Amino acid sequence: MRNRIKTRRVFHISITLLLVSTIFCQNGTGSHNTTADQISSYWSNRSQTMYSNASSLLSDLLSDYDIRLRPGFGGDALLLTMDIIIASFDSISEVDMDYTLTMYLHQYWTDERLRWNNEIPIDEMTLSGEFSQ
């Protein structure tokens, strides 16, 4: 038990020293930047995009998109993943062998035609259901 505690302590000290040395190596010896400054500059640079609004991004993304073709048309079958969550059994009739079921069906897949290049610094975008109409 005592060896395990020593091993954990050595591991935590080693990780801490590694992180501190990495920060100092990145900053250089003459730099006075703090980690908080680095984090804030990272997030401010990350939030700058080439698009002023989502509409222009979507119009560029969908310019060559054909909704009539399935993703990966002419290639391998598409991997479609489904989740079914049963929320409730509402009414059950044993005589008529009938029941009412409330469930959620979630389908998801990857459409490579909608993948944008790395020049656009956006990780994800959530759209409403009205977009598909």
How would you describe the overall organization of this protein?
With 133 residues, this protein is an alpha+beta fold. It has a domain at 70-133. The protein contains three helices and two strands. It has helices at 2-27, 35-47, 54-61, and strands at 81-93, 98-108. The relative contact order is 0.10.
Provide the descriptors you would attach to this structure in a database record.
single chain; 133 residues; alpha+beta; two-stranded antiparallel sheet; Neur_chan_lig-bd_sf
Helix-strand blueprint:
Layout: H1 2-27, H2 35-47, H3 54-61, E1 81-93, E2 98-108
Antiparallel strand pairs: 1-2
Residue windows where pLDDT falls under 50 for at least 5 positions: 27-32
| Helix and strand pattern | HHHEE
> Helical percent range?
25-40%
If you compute it from the alpha carbons, what radius of gyration comes out, rounded to the nearest whole angstrom? Answer: 26 Å
Helix and strand composition category: alpha+beta
Largest sheet: 2 strands, antiparallel
The total count of strands amounts to 2
How would you sum up the global shape?
Answer: flat
Portion in strands: 15-25%
End-to-end span in angstroms?
63 Å
Mean pLDDT: 71
Total helix count? 3
Task: Walk across the major sheet and give the strand order.
Answer: 1-2
Summarize the structure.
It comes from Caenorhabditis brenneri (Nematode worm). The protein is α+β, with helices and mostly antiparallel strands and 133 residues long.
